[in-house]
């Protein structure tokens, strides 16, 4: 019986998916051997996915949590929260947390503002499609390739310094990747160069879903230009904005390739974020306990932010 | 004022000053945006021998193929690209299949505790990859999967399943249940229904998920550098990272040529399947 109840529950995770499907599928009303066979078959269809995710993702996840409570001495003993207090007293990890915060702010605010601006400016089509294409193109590159390109720009005898000297701004030429906090800031800019493309696409999708009637009504009321944008268009983009914030935030937090290929978190581990610190601590500094704690904290932050924006879409499931 | 025959979609032309300002902003922004790409192309074209240590801003000579072939040999990009192609195709295919089966089970079949299964599988996409690394590394080292193609294949499947499942499940929810009902009435087995009805109906979503996962695997660096080391096993981004590590010895044109080469497959895929990307992004959001 319980299965039929479960099936009747309106279950699409996205309320907007297809409301006409809501009334639900009629439950399999038969009972008996046929039903039992279906159960078994269902288990068979589910098993591969559950095995892959369980054995290769969830089990390692649990192991990492467990490991984070043990210290890094030769014979590892229970350490309680010692690995977590490193976030308060280890200068490298403190710096890593600072950098992560900068990344969070930068990787949300910049793609958000630029993505929205470019989407709105190129929405009307025509030749502005070309402009949009140029902005979206880097999104098709891998983080490693983006790092190669930006290394070429930012390295000491790179394009940025050359251009500054050409304009007589020699005093501004500097080792962009060598000093904190400048190196973190320029990497956030490189990240924006790549990530704004997603924001543009998402905002364009959002702009297309604004009902034409709304815009016409606004025009009838005499709203135009900024006023129309601010009071009519922007409120309609709230849902998309939440998605953009969420994906940029999680993307920024998980960002590894760009930093790893550009600076390896250096010099002196000054440009690490938590995603890089975990790798450094675990595989290079050989502090697996500290690395596990970093991974757990990063996971907690990612889950929290994901929850904040997924909540909207997944609550209809009523978990 | 009353003659508002606007299409509604596009904002109407604004007064001239606004339009000029807007176009200026647009041109400047897109030029700034194009600059790194431009530098990449121009300097990948410069023959490595002619590169004087100063970035070029305009094309000079044509050494692209030499640069690429140097990158190809220096970083052994050939085997690396072959590996990544292998991993991306096989693991994306396997993951889509596994995910479609799971979606079929949790949406169409009378399985109990659907919500539990949904979260169990979907949770994998919420966790940062770092949290899996060391346990996988140790387990792989203990079982001979470290630095083996099969090991990387397995982990890429596992990483791809949760999000592919999310796409396939959302898609399955939009399918009409009547067809399946009718097939059940006719006594078709679930296995047959899956292959002969569900898979053909889900084809478009499966392709979208495949494209998405192909790119994700192709672009992966983290697992590549953690779970493999030999140049005939490691994926392409690990090879590119090593090439970048030799930046000063091989010279910028070669490194940029290599970056250009390894980016081509995903750039081509991205623009030929842009529609799919947008739809997967929408599903993600």
Automatic annotation (TrEMBL), chain A:
Residues 1-36 are annotated as: Disordered. The keyword Zinc does not apply. This is Sugar ABC transporter permease. The keyword Chaperone does not apply. It is found in: Cell membrane. Keywords: Cell membrane, Membrane, Transmembrane, Transmembrane helix, Transport. PROSITE patterns: ABC_TM1 (PS50928). Residues 17-30 have a biased composition (Basic and acidic residues). Residues 97-309 form the ABC transmembrane type-1 domain. It is a multi-pass membrane protein. It comes from Streptomyces durocortorensis. Belongs to the binding-protein-dependent transport system permease family. InterPro entries: ABC_transporter_permease (IPR051393), MetI-like (IPR000515), MetI-like_sf (IPR035906). The chain crosses the membrane at residues 40-62, 101-121, 133-153, 185-208, 229-250, 290-310.
UniProtKB/TrEMBL annotation, chain B:
It is a multi-pass membrane protein. Keywords: Cell membrane, Membrane, Transmembrane, Transmembrane helix, Transport. This is Carbohydrate ABC transporter permease. It comes from Streptomyces durocortorensis. InterPro entries: MetI-like, MetI-like_sf. The chain crosses the membrane at residues 20-41, 85-109, 116-133, 153-172, 193-218, 254-273. Residues 81-273 form the ABC transmembrane type-1 domain. The lineage of its organism: Bacteria, Bacillati, Actinomycetota, Actinomycetes, Kitasatosporales. It is found in: Cell membrane. It holds the Pfam family BPD_transp_1. CDD domains: TM_PBP2.
């Amino acid at each position: 019986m319980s299965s039929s109840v479960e099936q009747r529950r309106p279950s699409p995770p996205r309320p907007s998916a297809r409301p006409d499907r809501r009334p639900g599928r009629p439950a399999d009303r038969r009972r008996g051997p046929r039903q039992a066979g279906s159960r078994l078959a269902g288990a068979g269809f589910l098993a591969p996915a559950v095995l892959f995710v369980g054995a290769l993702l969830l089990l390692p996840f649990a192991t990492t949590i467990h490991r984070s409570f043990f210290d890094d001495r030769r014979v590892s003993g229970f350490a309680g929260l010692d690995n977590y207090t490193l976030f308060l007293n280890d200068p490298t990890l403190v710096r890593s947390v600072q950098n992560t915060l900068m990344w969070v702010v930068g990787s949300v605010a910049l793609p958000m503002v630029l993505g929205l601006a470019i989407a709105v400016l190129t929405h009307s089509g025509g030749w502005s499609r070309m402009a949009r294409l140029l902005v979206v193109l880097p999104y098709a590159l891998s983080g490693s390739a983006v790092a190669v390109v930006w290394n070429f720009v930012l390295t000491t005898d790179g394009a940025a310094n050359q251009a500054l000297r050409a304009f007589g701004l020699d005093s501004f030429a500097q080792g962009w990747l060598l000093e904190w906090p400048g190196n973190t800031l320029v990497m956030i800019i490189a990240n924006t160069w790549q990530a704004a493309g997603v924001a543009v696409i998402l905002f364009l999708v959002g702009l297309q879903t604004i009902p034409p009637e709304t815009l016409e009504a606004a025009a009838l009321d005499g709203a135009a230009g900024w006023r129309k944008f601010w009071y009519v268009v922007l409120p309609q983009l709230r849902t998309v904005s939440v998605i953009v914030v969420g994906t940029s935030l999680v993307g920024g937090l998980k960002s590894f390739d760009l930093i790893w290929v550009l600076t390896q978190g250096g010099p002196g581990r000054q440009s690490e974020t938590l995603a890089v610190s975990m790798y450094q601590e675990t595989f290079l500094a050989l502090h697996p306990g500290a690395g596990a704690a970093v991974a757990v904290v990063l996971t907690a932050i990612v889950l929290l932010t994901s929850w904040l924006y997924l909540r909207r879409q997944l609550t209809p499931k009523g978990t | 004022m009353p003659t508002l025959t606007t299409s509604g979609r596009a904002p109407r032309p604004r007064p001239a000053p606004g339009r000029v300002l807007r176009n200026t902003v647009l041109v400047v922004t897109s030029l700034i945006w194009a600059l790194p790409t431009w530098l990449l192309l121009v300097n990948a074209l410069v023959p490595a021998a002619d590169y004087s240590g100063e970035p070029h801003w305009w094309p000079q000579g044509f050494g692209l193929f030499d640069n690429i072939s140097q990158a190809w040999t220096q970083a052994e990009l050939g085997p690396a690209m072959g590996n990544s192609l292998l991993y991306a195709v096989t693991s994306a295919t396997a993951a889509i299949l596994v995910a479609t089966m799971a979606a079929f089970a949790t949406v169409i079949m009378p399985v109990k505790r659907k919500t539990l299964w949904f979260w169990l599988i979907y949770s994998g996409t919420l966790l940062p990859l770092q949290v899996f690394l060391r346990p996988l590394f140790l387990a792989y080292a203990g079982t001979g999967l470290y630095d083996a193609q099969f090991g990387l294949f397995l982990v890429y499947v596992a990483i791809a399943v949760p999000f592919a499942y999310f796409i396939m499940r959302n898609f399955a929810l939009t399918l009409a249940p009547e067809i399946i009902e009718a097939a059940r009435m006719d006594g078709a087995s679930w296995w047959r229904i899956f292959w002969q009805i569900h898979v053909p109906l889900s084809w478009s979503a499966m392709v979208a998920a495949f494209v998405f996962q192909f790119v994700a695997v192709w672009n992966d660096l983290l697992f590549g550098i953690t779970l493999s080391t030999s140049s005939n096993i490691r994926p392409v981004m690990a090879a590119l990272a090593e090439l970048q590590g030799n930046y000063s010895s091989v010279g910028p044109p070669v490194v940029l040529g290599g970056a250009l080469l390894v980016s081509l497959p995903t750039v081509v895929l991205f623009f030929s399947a842009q529609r799919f990307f947008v739809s997967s992004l929408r599903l993600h959001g």
